[in-house]
Amino acid sequence: MKLFDWKLVFDQIPPILSALPVTIELTLIATLIGYVLGLLLALIKINKIPVLRQLAVLYISIIRGTPILVQLYVTYYGIPLILKYHNMRFGTNYNLNAIPAILFAIIALGLNQSAFDSEIIRAAIQSVDKGQIEAAKTLGMTGFQILRRVILPQAVIVALPSLGNSLISLIKGTSLAFTVAVVDLTAQGRILAGKNFRYFEVYCSLAIIYWVITVVLENAFKVLEKKFSIPDQPKSPAKEKVEGGVA
Known about the structure:
Elements: H1 6-11, H2 13-17, H3 20-46, H4 52-64, H5 68-90, H6 101-126, H7 130-138, H8 143-173, H9 185-196, H10 199-228, H11 237-246
């Protein structure tokens, strides 16, 4: 028996990839939740809405201050407990066994993502030139129009690198979804390892898969950053002449 089988590492990649759609589904939905809820939290903090601001600060502090694994367990065991209490208290008949495990993972990952994304989005929004916002107000734009036409287009460009890093962290974070019975890439790898008892080779296969996904995402965001980056303003002939004379 070989101590380490390189061939097995690459042979196991295709069967592990059969669970890739689950990982993609987890990532996309959790990312959407993170962006939408993160934007809402950012706007609440920026506008200093009473009560809601304090609640947003507390929520972000709790989510950022606790491990994602703990959040997964709290969601997995907490939601059924709440629904069971609701059944007992109000006579409803929620079928707890019918809730798919992936739903708990999506909720936990989405909430976790929102807390981190909210700070990225808040910083990006606050980086927008206040003069442009005031100019938009003088033109009679509503608050929503200013947000949609002036603030968000510029904030997205600023936030893009950080949001890319956040998405990459989320991809790697989905590997913990197996702890709540979701058959993602990592869970599929563990199932295969349980059959052939070649755990080290399986985890090497998983490392290669996650690394390739990360590299693809990094390059995709680099392309987006280059596409949406604001080009340097060309110097006027007069300015070039002055600079040339000084030199």
